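<tokenise_the_fold>
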Amino acid sequence: MTPADHDGPGPGAEGPGRTRVSRRRLVLAVVWTAAGASLAAVVTAAVLAAQLGGLAETQGLDPIGLMFPLAGAFLISRRPRLPVPWLMWATGVVWSAYSLLFALTGWMYFHAPGPLLPYVAWPAIWLWLLPVPTFTGIMPLLFPDGRLPSRRWRPVLYGNLVLMAGHSLLLGLSPDPSFELGVPVGNPFGVAALGRVPEVVESWIGIPMILLCLLGVVSLGFRYRAATPEVRRQITWYFHAMVIFVVYWIASAGNQDTFIIAVRVFLAAGIPIAIIAAVLRHQLYGIRLILNRTLVYGTLAVGAGLTYSALIWTSNSLVDGYGAAAGLASAMVTGAAFHPVRLRLQRSVDRLFNVERDPYRAADLLSRTVQRAGDPAGALAEAISVVRTSLVARGVGVEVPGEPALSFVDGELGARSRSVELTWHGEPVGRLRIAGARPGREPLDVMAKHLAELAHAVRLSTDLRDSHERISATRDEERRRLGRELHDGLGPTLTSVTMTLDEARRRLERDPESVEELLVRVREEMTSTLMSVRELVDGLRPPVLDELGLAGALRAFGQAPGPRVEVTVPAAADGSEGVLDGLPAAVETAAYRIAQEALTNVRRHAQATSVLVTLRREAGELRVSVADDGTGLPDEPSPGVGLTSMRERAAEIGGACAIGPRPGGGTEVTAVLPLTPPA
């Protein structure tokens, strides 16, 4: 631990960390209290509705008010920053409040009418329009990470918000809400000018709600197509639940039969059940481990308590007067049964979560899981999840070095995670980080071999994808350059030649002597065009490189009139022969162009008698040196087009080029070109 870790408030101070913990505990307390209040509201609504006969048939014990708050509170306690759990929790809380107010309105109308009745009834008129569009239209758009699939789905989100706000306001201002409440209760905030408009809108509101819901389900389909295999399995549960609900909703639209409404409500309650199923089976929101332990030790605690109570009652009933001894015997029996029952219960829960704790069976499970994955990245993510559950760890992650560095994490690592280096064929390929794992080295060693292979595969696939992207970008850039060259150079020249030929054809009969001048001009322009085309083709990649290689091409270029040119390829630093086989095409082309430009400058300006071109291949780079015995550089050299061109060619592939005086007189151009292209 560094000294900085000790900085901050003392034991009695309220530091930022303690403030965040206190705030989170307060939020969770409010969330769970509201969930409990929702249950109480639903039960109270059921009791009130049961006293009203027909009204009880449409209310009952509302599954939405029961399931949504509990499921939402459970997920909020683990992932409080995600919007979907909050939407699910808020939907249940608001729906339970609506159920209570709706039932209370009917009960007060028949049993305790008074001045408060219109004010109790007023929220029951419009409150249902907040949760229904939320879980039918907004939640599918944001599931599972709280983000829209893309920007084009924003109008659907805004449509749901407008429907919620607009129709709620319209119902809240309805002068006669009896069509919504079922009993003739006045509206203290009603606007008489609206007349029957709210009732008419209410009769047609189902159509836009169903359409928006359908679009939300369609967005899930688009998200499914673009998601990773793990996210697809998570979406599948929720997607199927929503499809079943929407299909039944459309089929039963307009039907107000009690049984139809009850089935619709139960299908809506299946939505949080589907999300919990995704949590249990596919680790949605990363809470698989806590569910595993909660089921084991929660069931064990309940079972142990019931067993102890039963033994106490049996002992006191059969052997009166031995209360203390009976308690001791019951505790001993319960303690003796605790460990074997825990092991059996743990195995059952592990089978539910597809967990294998034996290292070799876990390795087999890891192999089978990897085989089902669609790509190396998805396979590594699946493997990390298997390793985490097998090691009973709080969090497991794998870091894959490179450009860019990659990180895969399942759970929470924290600051005190331990690291294990992953090696593949003796080479480090990544690092495994584990937090909160049970002791035991053997399972970790067995699984680390599989993870190392996957990390190597992820690095290779990522590098291959990046290489394809660079090649594609280079190809597109070259196409744009060729297009500019052809459009700006060859195109105008050919147009000029065509116009000159047309002029020569017109003059042929009236002034034949002037045609010769035009034809000479055409020949000159065509010759210039041919040279431009040849330069353009040579600019892509000189054909002489493919025919003679780099050294041979420079020797052929050096045979032109001028100073004597010698090309040497010395041995490498490790003593191996000087060979240039297998050079990357980009490096070979850049080296040829730089040496070619340097030799051209020597012939034009240096007044040299000899030039030495050295091509030295070293570890990871190629050194190109062009040294002459000429007059050397001027006292104040100015960078011309040639030197700028050489530097740009070297920089394109991540190298460098410099020009300076040669020891003993003359000038030397040196270029260092990396053999590995920059990322």
